[in-house]
What we know:
With about 210 residues, the protein is α/β, with parallel strands linked by helices. It has helices at about 5-20, 50-55, 70-80, 95-105, 130-135, 175-195; strands at about 25, 35-40, 60-65, 85, 110, 140-145, 160, 205.
Amino acid sequence: MNKFSTWLWRTAFWLRYKVGYGLKIYGRDNFPMEGPVIVVPNHLSNNDPPICGYALPRHVHFMAKQELFVNPISRFICTWLGAFPLNRGAIDKVAIRHAMGLLKDNKVLGIFAEGNRQKSGKLGKFHDGAASIALRTGVSIVPVAIIGSYNMERDKVACIIGKPIPVEKEKATPEAIKKVNDQVKGEIQRMIDSYHENRVEETLWK
């Protein structure tokens, strides 16, 4: 993506989320500024990808449900922002190859491990995808906690970026996948709890 396009969408998201809703961003300094990274946020609403994309200092290529690519307008926006489709009803080898290629090119891959939006506000079951790719590549996972994106009330929306969780390259067995998912999920839950208890450890950005 060229610099003008990046400036355009970052400005649009800044106006909507930072100016419009008072989005607070914590832990931006935790994010690696080079090399491949897998970003795993929790998922509350359709606001999550743009909030996360704006909060992070590097461009994120999100794995998105293929239904978003049916409508020409949403397909254009998703493709323009670097997202790519995933067939959630099967093992999508095309999407997995694309994700692995992004990491090979030292880019940032974004995966909502819960798959679906969790309207209850509680973390849902984590699927295997993000952990499996991390294990197959040895790429670290950065957990991200998004708060308040479902109700979208001013000054009650936040994004907390955790420290990278190292993942050793190994076979993606069910046991190894569960271990990684438990680590990531636990860290996201810790950040959510810390926000609601007014004890966020991560540094507030701007």
